[in-house]
Amino acid sequence: MNHSLLLDTAVPSLLATMDALTLEPDFQLFFKKAAAAVRTLLDADGTALILLDEESQTFEYKLFEGEHQHLLSAFKGFRFSASQGISGQALANKRSIFTRDYATASDAIPQLVNAGLQSNLVIPLISSDKVLGVIASSWFKHTDKCAEVSPQLLALAERIASQIAVACHREQLEAQLRSLVTIDPLTKLLNRRGILDCLDHSLENLRRYQRGFALFFIDVDGLKAANDHWGHETGDLLLRDVAQRLGDVMRKGDQLGRLGGDEFLIIAECDQAHIELLAKRFLQALRVPYGSGRKRGRLSGSIGVVLAPQDGEDEISLMRKADAAMYLAKSQGGDRYQRASVKATLPQEQLISIVDVEGALERSELQLWYQPICHLQDLSLVGFEALLRWCKPDGEVISAGPLIQAFEAARGDLEYRVGNWVLREAARQMKLWNRGDFAPDIHINISPRHFLHPSFLLELQNLCERHPGFGKALIIEITETAMLEDLERAKRIMLRCRDLGARMAVDDFGTGYASLTYIKRLPLDIIKIDRSFVADLPGNRVDWDITQGIVSIAHALGLTVVAEGAETFEQIGCLRELNCDQVQGYFIHRPMPFSDAQGWLDRKSQRPNGGIHIKPLHAVNGRKTSALNNKLVSAACLQGQSLAPGQTLSPEFMDPRYTLGNPQPRSA
């Protein structure tokens, strides 16, 4: 090629490529421009992008630009060994290779020969010493234009290839960053954000095309025992095994992700008739044996299933119902699935009587479960609320509501006996909570009748004497009803509780009839805003204004404000903007047995320091919290957990979108 032709054709092609790299953010569009420049420069029939997969050491055809699309476009996705072929030679020697007669080359690929490839030029793609692959310019007919490639043209083509390598490297780095946001590093599945993005897409298809789907909310049974007996390394191996097994039995088109811990979510397009078939398939995959001898065990799964649109048409309601159904399946012994609609009524709870509660107390079947309470500004742990549960021998767990209804209706002394048992059990377990310099607060609900009963103060005084420090850690929660039933007597009892070191909190504030006069006259320390005012934030203007008023009044009186029932990061952002002090709800964690709560606290205490500290951030643009504020909240709850005092978050947990923490139906 003469000098004039180089000036007229080659150099403008090179400059066009440079401009494309600068101005074109889409890599595929950039490659089309760059490949067209190479093809024009060499007068070739087409140019292909062939990338190296370092893990499998194979080449893969990614893109092709030029004539004969019908021949080479069929090769998209075609793989061959990186140690063979002319492409392998070019990368190994890091130099370009021109093959005049491709069919007679020793390393020719038969499929390309059959496609009619006559000549090609392979140029390695290398950026920052990283070998990425090659570009291959192809000719399909023997003509003078493919007789040779002059050194000048080759130099220009290699210059363009270097720009393609830079763009390709940039695209790979951006893809890696995107995968860090949406891929779980342990199982290589979609993480919480990734699978919830898929759920959003499924909901959009539901709205547009009426395409229903099912959610399978999966919790692995027995993983804690495996961790205890064999260590967390074995637990991680089992989680990876579970992820692989679930992936193997999924249908093409279904989506699988890890929500966090031992919880997984599968989104499957199916109808009611296919739910049982899929659920049984997943349950079978989750039956994983491990260990040997006395430490031999087996994992299984508890699955909650919801069907859209029958069970809901939005993310929050579907996730909440699926989690509730899963929890019911687990309470019934696990290794089973539960449809959400079946959980609408629980006749066992409706039939609970005083005899049942008496028997549960005598057989030591009552337990205290604990729900974390955290500082709103940094989500560091403050303490726990102790909640009553009846854990039946068959694995079913009855929440506090039916139990309270049973012994309140009986009008005997069972209410006092159960209340005193709760205090004694909390005092006994309190000693095990202390972790070095950190002793969490323990919130305990005391019923109005129990609080005003003559035995209450005597029992509390004895406990504080037998368990030093219990009084200081104790926060007694009473309702507005207890305060108003006998105001002066309630005030005397509260002052005596304070003398023992305990603090006083008003529970479910805003649902009763307490006036500001009563709040001013009583020795209170904490006000807990009822969940009904939090549920509709930020959209409900009335709830916003009421909550703002409660917080302002409480702070004016020197009281701490705890918001109950927080379930979404939007609610957390609103509560921060409203200057609430502490938060409690399924966004942080649902109530859990004492042993699970201990393990949860241990994991938090073992998290390494360093990373990004959560600091208080103010809202901008009205009620919309800042993006960074939401990321920090999301990062903490991506773990399904809060931070222990003084702990920080590492950058890999920064999640710009978080919709739901640990959804559960609301119960005491």
From TrEMBL:
PROSITE patterns: EAL (PS50883), GGDEF (PS50887). PANTHER family: CYCLIC DI-GMP PHOSPHODIESTERASE PDEF (PTHR33121), SIGNALING PROTEIN YKOW (PTHR33121:SF70). Residues 211-342 form the GGDEF domain. It comes from the Bacteria. It holds the Pfam family GGDEF. Residues 648-668 are annotated as: Disordered. InterPro entries: Cyclic-di-GMP_PDE-like (IPR050706), EAL_dom (IPR001633), EAL_sf (IPR035919), GAF (IPR003018), GAF-like_dom_sf (IPR029016), GGDEF_dom (IPR000160), Nucleotide_cyclase (IPR029787), Rev_trsase/Diguanyl_cyclase (IPR043128). Residues 350-605 form the EAL domain. This is Bifunctional diguanylate cyclase/phosphodiesterase. SMART domains: EAL, GAF, GGDEF. Transmembrane segments: none annotated. SUPFAM superfamilies: EAL domain-like (SSF141868), GAF domain-like (SSF55781), Nucleotide cyclase (SSF55073).
